[in-house]
Design a protein that fits this description.
This protein is an alpha/beta fold. The chain is built from 17 helices and 17 strands.
Length: about 425
Amino acid sequence: MQKASKSNAKKTEELGYIKTDASKKIIYASPDFCHNFSQKETELLGKSIYSIVHSSVKSKSNIIFAAIFGYSCLVKKTFEEPHLVYRMIIRHDNVDPNEIVSFLNSIESKKYKKTSVQQNLYTFEEIIGDSPMMERVKELASKIAINNSTVLLTGESGTGKELFAQAIHQLSPRKNQPFVAVNCVAIPEELFESELFGYESGAFSGAKKEGKPGKLELAHDGTLFLDEISELSYQTQGKLLRVLQEREVERLGGTKTKQVDIRIITATNRNLKALVDEGKFREDLFYRLYVFDLQIPPLRKRPEDIMQLAYSYVDYFNQKLGKEVNYIDSMLEDWFLHYHWPGNVRELKANIERGMLIVEGDTLTLDLLYLSFNEPAADTKKDSIIIESLEDEVRKAEINAIRQVLEETGGDRSLAAQKLKIHVASLYRKIAKYNIK
């Protein structure tokens, strides 16, 4: 794409606007936007807004700083039913957008460093995703954050449960106090109690002479986040229950108890009630934890967020790896939107990173992601067949879906686009691409 000429650019002006549909695909670009950025509207239609508006810094307001076609802009987002409108307010032609974005990132990185225990905690504004489902979860989480009630976060692996735990802490009255995270799977069972409760001098062989405070003590006045709570041994569950009831801790090898004022947030990707029925999880502890169950939706149930997340990781790895990728091609985007994502956001990030490591140029493509899947490979011919079949499956699924909906609508392409939940311009392109009669 051709960049706007700096000689023709104005220093401060409203530079036009872009409209998107519910899936954040561009459905309209104003003439002044196309003029100021030397773009053709036909080339913009159907593209993800995140391929045009690059911003790696989240903002609480509807005004964001972004790089657009290599220029630094302030962008105002407004909702004009039923479309989201991005208005380009100001462009600073003498400022490198990448330098400013990096500078703002460094500020955000330092902003949350308070203690050695609590660093770089996420806020709700930094959790990417503005689909109706995610907005609802954020709204509920914000409401429960302001009190001290115990919260149970449930959801599949990779959905971002710890990010929500951090955001709840950051919005709570305890935000200036420690946030201590404990992964109940990562610590060996024989060491877990000493890590959680601490120990006194001489409690066991190898214990420090001065003893050691446990995670419960370190979280005093703050928040203790217990990830994968379902993996606690039955014995440890009983000791944790006592802490929740009495709000006091006794170190291993100790004889005295210490009062602790903590908020407990737990997370699991398993069904705790089913574990209770199986006798693997204490029923009394379950009801202590089950004050508020916040369910984090899997990525496949909020497809509106997929491309926003994808481009945010592209921007992240651009900075980390020194790349200049601005676009995700249509075949890869289609694959992203149709893939099941069993690993959720964590898997999406890994896919982006894999492609970003070997990409050359400004566009991330499907073949880049699967090249790394095949290395090392004993049978490259077999792997190439897998690649072709995956691409072919996406193509066949789209062709079948378009043909079926066109038959149902009697060839009415506008109605067909509505049923397929894509813009009519995107439908026209796909019909031409697949030569559908």
